[in-house]
Specification:
The chain is an all-alpha fold and 167 residues long. The chain is built from six helices and no strands. The protein binds protoporphyrin IX containing FE. Protoporphyrin IX containing FE binds next to α1, α2, α5 and α6.
Amino acid sequence: MLSLVLIWLHVVAAAVWVGGMVFFVTVLVPVVRSGEFATHSAAIVRATGRRFRTVGWTALAVLIVTGFGTLLVRGIGPAELIDTATWATPFGRLLGGKLLLVGLVLVLSTAHDLYVGPRASAAAIAAPTSPAATALRRRASLMGRSNLVLALAIVALAVTMTRGCGV
Ligand code: HEM
């Protein structure tokens, strides 16, 4: 029963995080950047970005806690995690790749949310057409899209982990 609850929480958190990024990149930003909302687009992107930051980091925290929880339920605890034999198995190799991408996402999200994102939206409000605002907006957008690609790769590794390697 515990493993079912952990995996359910894990999959729901993955849906919230990945779904939220897909919505942001494919629906929200294109709509607010279209002519109709152009005057308020920077303020709308900043406000929704801030709100999604809380939801996104909460989902990531749930993913990490339930991820280690499901490993424990599978009998993979601290001793197994420091044992190189664990990482040499098909499941271990996929998990290793997944955790590497999760680490990359955490670094990119931190840089985006704490540094590039706030500077991009402040510049977009202060001087929307300035070269600095354009450069920062492009960098923030590239980081956001890279995170989405990484998230989709993480889900692909996750599905292969549980179904692809016959464990
Ligand atoms: C941060 C982004 C993450 C995403 C988007 C994600 C996504 C997923 C998804 C969608 C599954 C279900 C796959 C399936 O049933 O076919 C899954 C399973 C799993 N994930 Fe994650 N995960 C993430 C992070 C983690 C972390 C940090 C860990 C470990 C510390 C982890 C460990 C696991 C394990 C062990 C399973 C297999 C569960 C089972 O069937 O027993 N995940 N993950």
